[in-house]
Amino acid sequence: MVERKKTGSTLAKEMNRQAILEQVKQHGRLSRAELSKRTALSRPCVSSLVNEMMSEGVLYEVGAGQSSGGRKPILLEYNYQAQSIVGAVFEGSTLHMALSDLRGNIFARYETRLCQPATGETAISALEAGVSALLGQTGIERQRLLGIGVGLPGITQRRVGTISFSPSTGWKELPVQQEIERRLSIPAVIDNDVNMMAQGEYAQGVGLGAASVVYIYVGTGIGSGIIIDGQFYRGCTEAAGEIGYMMVGPVEERRDQEFGVFEKNYSVPGIIRKARELLSDLQEDASVIQQLIVHASQGNQRVDGLLEDIYRHWAYAMANIISVLNPELIVLSGEMIHMDDRGLEQIRALLVQWVPVMPQIKKAVLGNQAGMIGAVHSVLEAYPYGQCKQR
Known about the structure:
Blueprint (H helix, E strand, L loop, with lengths): L7 H20 L2 E2 H8 L3 H14 L2 E6 L9 E5 L5 E8 L2 E7 L5 E8 L6 H19 L6 E8 L2 E3 L4 E4 L10 H9 L3 E5 H12 L8 E6 L3 E7 L2 E2 L28 H6 L1 H9 L11 H10 L3 H25 L3 E6 L6 H14 L5 E4 L5 H14 L9
Parallel strand pairs: 4-7, 7-10, 11-14, 14-15
Antiparallel strand pairs: 1-3, 2-3, 4-5, 5-6, 8-9, 11-12, 12-13
């Protein structure tokens, strides 16, 4: 677990360190004198803290700067390689993991498949094995890890570090964050898997530069990540974005802990179930949408009708989202990226008829990297100045 309690003097020192690091990260190379001016800290204070951070490898000297009349000042730069971050996301039965530097640039990857049904124990054991594999690949020491961000299926409670509900795994009320920190001996940040993917596309993908984005993922279930004015919207119990529970599609009696109506009908398993009624050669290890497009292009009218039904119901959900949230951009991911241009235009044409203001609609571009990138950025947001201390 991470030690967050600080005494008054320790807190003041930490705030001064952060002020210096913020200036160096924001402005690039700065001298000690410039840091003193920008932070309003005394030169002895700045020198002492800079020396401390240089000994830790957080800052380093990069040569002399321009002289304004005296000796040339020595410039300092932030060391983005001082620590590394692990990003991990569970996507269906696959665990994707990566190592990044403090800029969020990924330089090593790891992937494994989990035996199904997954349990909390098998998931955390897979994370342990993945961290060890990444450290073995790169030669990085565990004490240089700032933390791990983990995207998990289901409704996560970030404030208390638990999963309250996960229909795909059966996990319920598990203290996941605490157990990850105990087993891996590094700070952990957990979130819903789709939120991590949304954060990845927002930080480095198609959402870069947009203020309000809704990221929609269709896979084993259906979910969304909601970013409004640059901030995640999570709802009062952190269950915002669970659009799989929209009343879209045929409604049957729902049992406790079962998938929602929308995802039961129009997630990948729901679509496969419908497609099996029409096709005898369906390959379950390939994109079902791509296969339907191929058969429709060969003149299979029933398959073409199924595709239109899928697109229409996906559009129903988008219309609901647009009407309530008025996003600037909707990002389509998961199985949705396999739509062809015709399918995308069908959805756009329907939405133009139904909603008062049309957002941009784009496919995600990061693929399975999105969740890992988002997980890395969740750690960077939680510990923007690095050097998180452990008990």
